[in-house]
Design a protein that fits this description.
alpha/beta; Rossmann fold; five-stranded parallel sheet; two-stranded antiparallel sheet
């Protein structure tokens, strides 16, 4: 059986890491946080990379880490991508044959989460207007994911994972096939893109 992988995409604070970790646990798959992998490879934190080298150097490191990851998968894996990863054309191309899931939340909930989260986010804007502008610039790319799951109002990561498992047929020997997802189909409360 071929190695399978699912990539979670979405804006900062959308819950990609939390959901990916839980989904991997439920499926007994490996879990990879791409940002953590970049930090390990570069021996710097994400904020340090942005501060010392700039965003363009970070994006190069991100694409390199993603390319190496997709070429080296040996076990079924759930991957949490950084908030800007899927907005980069090279990265979307690298993920073209893998299912991707956009975790969608309302802008105000994302903003609130970033205010409450102590995580240092290099591209988090200081005001809601700039934050919204960055979100809106990335939204068309997120909508190119294989499927969208609206996570607002879902009580815990388990319900989000259940929806992903059902829609991508990840349990009981079911196998994901791109043809099983029609681009115009609706998935739960989200829409396929």
């Amino acid at each position: 059986m071929a190695v399978r992988a699912v990539f979670l995409v979405g804006f900062m604070a959308s819950g990609k890491t939390t959901v990916a970790r839980e989904l991997a646990r439920r499926l007994d798959w490996d879990f990879v946080d791409l940002d953590a992998r970049i930090e390990s490879r570069e021996r710097l934190t994400i904020p340090q990379i942005f501060r010392n080298r700039g965003e363009s150097a970070f994006r190069l490191a991100e694409t390199s880490a993603l390319r190496d990851l997709t070429k080296s998968l040996e076990r079924n894996t759930v991957v949490a991508l950084g908030g800007g990863t899927f907005a980069q054309p090279k990265n979307r191309e690298l993920l073209g044959s893998w299912p991707s899931v956009f975790l969608e939340l309302p802008l105000d909930e994302l903003w609130r989460r970033t205010l409450e989260d102590p995580t240092k986010r290099p591209l988090r804007k200081e005001n809601l207007t700039d934050f919204a502008r960055l979100y809106e610039s990335r939204l068309p790319f997120y909508r190119q994911a294989t499927m969208t799951v609206v996570t607002s109002g879902k009580g815990d990561p388990a319900s989000v994972c259940g929806e992903i498992e059902r829609k991508l047929q990840l349990r009981d020997g079911e196998k994901f096939s791109e043809s099983s997802l029609h681009p115009a189909a609706n998935f739960g409360t989200g829409e396929s893109q």
